[in-house]
Amino acid sequence: MYGQPLSLKSLWRIVRHPVDAEKLAILDARWREIPQVLRDYPMQGFGRQSTGCGATIGINPRCDFSCTGCYLGKEANQIPNMPLAGVLAQLDALRAHLGPKANVQITDGEVTLRPVEELTAILRYARQIGVIPMVMTHGDRFRLEPGLLETLMVKGGLTEISIHIDITMRGRDGYPVPKSELELMPLRDDFAALIRTARKRTGLPLRAATTMTPAGIEPAVQA
Ligand code: SF4
Prior knowledge:
Blueprint: H1 8-16, H2 21-33, H3 36-39, E1 54-55, H4 84-98, E2 103-106, H5 116-129, E3 132-137, H6 140-144, H7 148-156, E4 160-164, H8 185-202, E5 207-211, H9 218-222
Helix pairs in contact: 4-5, 5-7, 7-8
Bound molecules: iron/sulfur cluster.
């Protein structure tokens, strides 16, 4: 269903109308909202080419790591998951504000700790309403549960993932208290291999990114 080649008819429609009417209307609304000083800036992209991107919030405040740079409050692990219906309603609100084909981060605490059936339902729904979900994760559940990434790709239509790796992280299997970024390079290689294997096994595309919190800015993040 996902990652299938486009039909000739769809390709022709995209060539003739690369930006659809709904997206154009939302772009126009965003453009009218931004201050004149930004509209005068020739490189201003928001409102011209982009309606911005979005992110879920509060869908799974829990995390099994305890990174020194974490932005979550101390109470995060006591907060229950948002019911699935609430998550889908958030996606609806994001879709209405951002328009079709917008990038939406599926994030909060560690979203892969939600039951896999719920995470695949969230991903499927995002696709169904026309936004592109990217799962933001520390990635360890994929290391500990072989096949989970493939399940999200096949059953959830996952095409984008971002894995956070850096020395501020605490609790990772095999790397509980990393001392240097160099020490984490084999872990990054492992994730790259895991992603390549998932692409090969499923025959589906998966775009991958990585994020990091530079050591030294954690106090500013927490302030
Ligand atoms: S993995 Fe992310 S959410 Fe979890 S403790 Fe670390 S920074 Fe916070």
